[in-house]
């Protein structure tokens, strides 16, 4: 006998919805396209996904410097000044997220 339940979490590999399949006491977690994980495997993979997502946010916040620099000659000085202030804030936010990454603990089973 097997039961299948959807999980309100996404596949670490493709971000598709996950399901939990229990067959004769064995547990498998899989997504719609067929990525399959053990209990330990999905927790490990999800930990990596969390870290990658946070690094992605850090990169997006930091690259605002290059973006505003590239557009600077197209912007009025008052607008550019506001954008540079916002960039400084985004760099502070990136530092906060980087600190979170440095203290992020992966799931351990
Ligand atoms: Zn998947």
Task: Describe what you observe in this structure.
The chain is α+β, with helices and mostly antiparallel strands and 109 residues long. It folds into 2 domains: 1-37, no CATH class; 46-104. It has helices at 39-62, 64-71, 77-102, and strands at 2-10, 17-23, 26-31, 36-37. A 4-stranded antiparallel sheet has the order 1-2-3-4. Helix 1 runs antiparallel to helix 3 (77-102). The structure holds zinc ion. Zinc ion (ZN) binds at residues 11, 13-14, 16, 31, 33, 35.
Give the low-pLDDT segments: none
Task: Count up the domains.
Answer: 2
Radius of gyration equals 21 Å
The main sheet comes to: 4 strands, antiparallel
Structural class of the helix and strand makeup?
alpha+beta
Q: Are any ligands bound, and if so which?
A: zinc ion
Number of strands: 4
The global form is: elongated
State the main characteristics:
single chain; 109 residues; alpha+beta; 2 domains; 4-stranded antiparallel beta sheet; 53% helix; elongated; binds zinc ion
């Amino acid at each position: 006998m097997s039961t299948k339940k959807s999980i309100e979490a996404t596949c670490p590999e493709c971000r598709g919805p996950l399901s939990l399949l229990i067959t004769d006491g064995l547990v498998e977690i899989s997504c719609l396209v067929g990525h399959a994980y053990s209990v330990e495997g999905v927790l490990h993979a999800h930990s990596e996904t969390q870290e990658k997502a946070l690094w992605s946010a850090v990169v997006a916040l930091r690259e605002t410097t290059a973006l505003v620099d590239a557009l600077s000659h197209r912007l009025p000085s008052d607008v550019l000044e506001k954008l540079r202030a916002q960039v400084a804030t985004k760099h502070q936010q990136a530092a906060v997220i980087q600190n979170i990454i440095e203290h992020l603990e992966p799931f351990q089973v």
